[in-house]
Amino acid sequence: MMDKSHPKMIRTSLSTFLKNHNFIVKEGLIALLICALGDLVAGIILGKMTFFLKMFPGLLVLIPGAIGMRGNIFGSFASRLSTNLHIGIISPKFELSDDLNHNIFASFVLTLFLSLFLAIVAKGLCLLFNFESISIFDFVIISVLAGIISNIIMLPITMFISFKSFKHGWDPDNVTTPIIAAFGDLFTLPAIIISIYILRFINLNLILGYVIFIIILILVLVSFVYCYNLSYETKTILKQSTPVLLICSFLGGAAGGVLNSSVETLLTNPTLLTLIPQFSGESGSLISILGARLSSGLHSGLIEAAKKPQGHAVDNFIVSYILTILIFPFIGILAEASSILFKTAGVGFDKIMEISTISGLILVSVMIFVVYFISITSYNKGLDPDNIVIPISTSVTDSISSLILISVSLVILGVLI
């Protein structure tokens, strides 16, 4: 006979857990809601980019990697700031120092270098899968210029959010990464559009185009070598981050390849096209919060780098599930509401909420173990998790989120797509 007190015990345990972790859920939820609004704007922009996607074939392969790269680089930058603020290396009064300056410069150089690599990956994937695409010249110009534009915006935003959240008593691990990711998502697509217009101007003069192309290549390579030799701090960041981010860029390109292979389906289902940046952004932000908290926990000794997660690590897993159940139905509602607002074809609130929630639960169930494994492995190998965990975990998230979302959509919507 079932013990009637068992459900009551579960409710009591859940209530106690929420009470003890209320600040984490509250801060994380607020950050994710802000992120959702930013991703909604990005989704609406992507939904309105059909002209550019048709005029510049293969561009969709570049977009997920470009969006993910902003989150990877500046999420890691924010995570390093968070750790340094926690342990007192960087002053919360925002005083310029070698540590801060070197972090800024390294983040800028990583953006340039990875933008170039992402352009090469995007063109390579188009050739490999026989996608119609623009030239490597066009890919490089668009990707690097978009990276520079995003950098100019994202560096001050990242520092402002990190320092302000810490100053006001908010844990940067719960706040900065998702909000920064939201800003990255928000500004990446406009930066790409601006880069396209610049490219169209450059293409009016072939010689000018080649000169700019060569200048970009020289600038990227020289700045990378200079930064690598600048200091021990910058060398460590580039040495640990570059291999990881190269893998991440490839995974981001793979995610773009998945989307590009279903481009006709997406163009005929605007709600799904709007949902993609939201789903990818919220997934990456949620996993980034987990990664940042695990990283800080390992640094501070709250989490033991053991093969079997326990204690503080398991608590963070449960918080991730709670946030998933709260946020993913909401972004489905936002996607469908935007379709109604702009008078485009929707799929229905019930179906889009089901798609978003089920996809989110599947994704989080996979990623919590991936993030934990990456965290303890990097820590045990003597690597800084701040440089490793967020880039890899968010890139894996970006890569599989597209596949999971499209697969769940196919199952739930059936013949509708």
In words, what does this structure look like?
There is one protein chain. 85% of the residues lie in helices and 0% in strands. It has 14 helices and no strands. Helix 2 runs parallel beside helix 7 (172-202), helix 2 (22-47) packs parallel to helix 12 (312-341) and helix 5 runs parallel beside helix 9 (232-261). It is globular and about 65 Å long. 53% of the residues are buried. The mean pLDDT is 81.
Summarize this structure briefly.
The chain has one domain (14-413). It is built from 14 helices and no strands.
Comma- or semicolon-separated keywords:
417 residues, mainly alpha, 14 helices, 0% strand, globular
How would you classify the helix and strand content by structural class? mainly alpha
Kindly report how far apart the N and C termini lie: 47 Å
Radius of gyration: 21 Å
The SSE order reads HHHHHHHHHHHHHH
Largest sheet: none
Question: How many beta-strand segments?
Answer: 0
Uncertain stretches of 5 or more adjacent residues = none
Shape: globular
> Which bin fits the share of residues in helices?
over 70%
Mean pLDDT: 81
Q: Give the total of domains.
A: 1
Taken as a percent bin, the fraction of beta residues is under 5%
Task: Please tally the helical runs, counting DSSP H or I stretches of 4 or more residues.
Answer: 14
Keywords: Ion transport, Magnesium, Membrane, Transmembrane, Transmembrane helix, Transport
Subcellular location: Membrane
GO molecular function: monoatomic cation transmembrane transporter activity
Main location: membrane
